Amino acid sequence: MKPLRQFDLNLLIIFEALISECHVSRAAEKVFLSQSAMSHALNRLRQYLNDPLLVRTEHGLQPTPRALAMLPEIRKALELIERTLEPTELFTADTSERTFSIASTDYFESVIFPDLVSHLQTIAPHIRLQIEMISEDASSSKLENRQVDLVVGMDASKKIPAHLIAEHWITEQLVCLAGVANTEVGNNLSIQQYINLPHAVFSDLTGDNSSSIDNWLSTQQLSRQSIVRTVNYMAAARIVAQTSAIITLPSHMANLFSQMLAVRVVTPPEGMPSIEMTTIHHPLFDNDPGLCWLKEQIFLLGSQRSNTPPFLSTPLSDPL
To answer: Which GO terms describe its molecular function (predicted)?
Structure first.
């Protein structure tokens, strides 16, 4: 392959028109060239790529396999160039009526989202927000298609496609919840007690069931006993309130549940890792002023939450 500097990048536009139309005259009209100029450009492409690209058949011109394989990638490249060259749109939060879609865990939805809505009602009253659970396509195709603007709260230990941009958002101490009626669990857990207890385990919809907790245990050749997996922390907390199981979750969420349900906060085993949560967005929209503004608001609230100590629930007397 010849060096890219020897290639006329205008030929990418011509390539897209030719392979899309499979007709020299129509392709020429599409890019405002004469038919002879388009034919000359096609010959240049054939020479550079060492491929006929379009072959005459009884059904007219047909693209070669290589041309068909290149077409979607060329379109992506052209779209990226167009977005880069477009002037940046102004974003005025106090008058904008934009709807943002956020994919998140219910940590964000329960702990941060109410404060975010209240905050935006003051500074951007016409902004609309919609939430969906994090799923595999929410962190890949939906971000690219702008069905989701931002993924918030994913555990940093989770694998994501390499082309997406992940930024550290918040660090939370992990604690455990046990039912108030669960007299088998005291105020503190040793590592042995922890792995011997039944667990309600939070699992998101990305298809990756690993977590920082399981990774930490595996380094010690240990694992926890999962009796149920759920994509909803509230459901898991309610299970804990009614069974002998425990759940491990971020401290602010644990203390929120301890005020709502018959559960109490328990100190986890020594060495329990913190959870590092991220925001994720697609690089296509890295310079979107509206998205940048939304991220600023979410980072601001996350920072405030990090600096606010969680409510400490009243300890239960250690079991006899």
So the answer is: DNA binding; DNA-binding transcription factor activity
* Residue 40 maps to a domain: yes
For the chain, where are the alpha helices, taking DSSP H only?
A: 10-21, 24-30, 35-49, 65-85, 106-107, 113-123, 141-144, 191-196, 212-218, 233-242, 251-258, 289-306
> Residue 12: which domain range?
7-85
Mean pLDDT value of segment 261-282: 94
Report the distance separating Cα 197 and Cα 225, nearest Å. 7
> Residue 318: is its pLDDT beyond 70?
no
271 and 290 fall within a common domain: no
**pLDDT value at 247 more than 60:** yes
Cα(65)–Cα(34) distance, integer angstroms? 27
Q: What is the pLDDT of residues 274-291, one digit of tens each?
A: 999 999 999 999 989 999
Tokens for 21, please give them. Answer: 């139309």
Same domain, 181 and 223: yes
Q: Which of 187, 192, 248, 186 is nearest to 220 (CA)?
A: 192
**pLDDT tens column, 184-210:** 899 999 999 999 999 999 876 655 556
Left (φ > 0), alpha (ψ -120 to 50) or beta: where does 170 sit?
beta
User: CATH number, domain at 182?
Assistant: 3.40.190.10
Instruction: Please give the tally of structural domains in the chain.
Output: 3
